[in-house]
Amino acid sequence: MAEDILYADIKFTSQTGSSSLHSPSQQLAAPQHSHWIQIALWAACIGNVILVIAVIVLALQVEPEKEKIVLNNGGCSASTDKFQAFLRLNFCNQNQNRSSDNSTCKVCPLQWQLHRDKCYWSSENIKSWNESQRDCSTRDSQLLVIQDKEELDFIESITKNSKYWIGLSLLKSKKKWMWITGFQLDQSLFPEPNYAEGNSCAAIRYKIIYERCSTALRWICQKGPLLL
């Protein structure tokens, strides 16, 4: 019985001693861990310094390029002004199309005719109404929309004895003549063409007349002029 008690005491003492032997290594782990943290912090600081230096160097390189771009843009602007002056000299003075402030003029593309605020182009061949509208679209324009009696008189001088499609068609659901711009025909300016069965589109020959949209006729396109 006494031996058992002694054995138990020795075993307890051995465990206590073993615990005391490992504690110094555990105490050494904390200073080593702190050392690596300090190294990481120093590395981060050095990285930030390098980044700041790189940003400064890049800014110094960009600034001269920025000045070059500004100078180049200035040269481009000067060239544009010269070209614009050349166009005014060769087109505006010749056609006397300057605006009231004498600073700009209106110019139309080749084969287009200027009248007031529009450029007009008339075809030589013939197409249906829908095909004519598509052709005008390829020319960055639309079928003619007549706004007043003065414009109608001018168009009559172009069309003469031929029929030309214009941008006016009959809206079947309402049986109303509508311009391609979405506005209804002003009957105070133009008498409404007689209603025709089937698809009906408008043409001009001295006055506005109706034709079947599938009929092949010449056509007139319109668009705004270039301001110089």
Automatic annotation (TrEMBL):
<dbReference type="InterPro" id="IPR016187">
    <property type="entry name" value="CTDL_fold"/>
</dbReference>
<dbReference type="GO" id="GO:0009986">
    <property type="term" value="C:cell surface"/>
</dbReference>
<dbReference type="GO" id="GO:0005576">
    <property type="term" value="C:extracellular region"/>
</dbReference>
<keyword id="KW-0735">Signal-anchor</keyword>
<dbReference type="InterPro" id="IPR033992">
    <property type="entry name" value="NKR-like_CTLD"/>
</dbReference>
<keyword id="KW-0812">Transmembrane</keyword>
<keyword id="KW-0430">Lectin</keyword>
<dbReference type="InterPro" id="IPR016186">
    <property type="entry name" value="C-type_lectin-like/link_sf"/>
</dbReference>
<keyword id="KW-1133">Transmembrane helix</keyword>
<feature type="transmembrane region" description="Helical">
    <location>
        <begin position="39"/>
        <end position="60"/>
    </location>
</feature>
<feature type="domain" description="C-type lectin">
    <location>
        <begin position="115"/>
        <end position="222"/>
    </location>
</feature>
<protein>
    <submittedName>
        <fullName>C-type lectin domain-containing protein</fullName>
    </submittedName>
</protein>
<dbReference type="InterPro" id="IPR001304">
    <property type="entry name" value="C-type_lectin-like"/>
</dbReference>
<keyword id="KW-0964">Secreted</keyword>
<dbReference type="GO" id="GO:0005886">
    <property type="term" value="C:plasma membrane"/>
</dbReference>
<dbReference type="InterPro" id="IPR051527">
    <property type="entry name" value="KLR_subfamily_B"/>
</dbReference>
<keyword id="KW-0472">Membrane</keyword>
<dbReference type="GO" id="GO:0030246">
    <property type="term" value="F:carbohydrate binding"/>
</dbReference>
<keyword id="KW-1015">Disulfide bond</keyword>
<dbReference type="GO" id="GO:0042269">
    <property type="term" value="P:regulation of natural killer cell mediated cytotoxicity"/>
</dbReference>
<dbReference type="GO" id="GO:0038023">
    <property type="term" value="F:signaling receptor activity"/>
</dbReference>
<dbReference type="Pfam" id="PF00059">
    <property type="entry name" value="Lectin_C"/>
</dbReference>
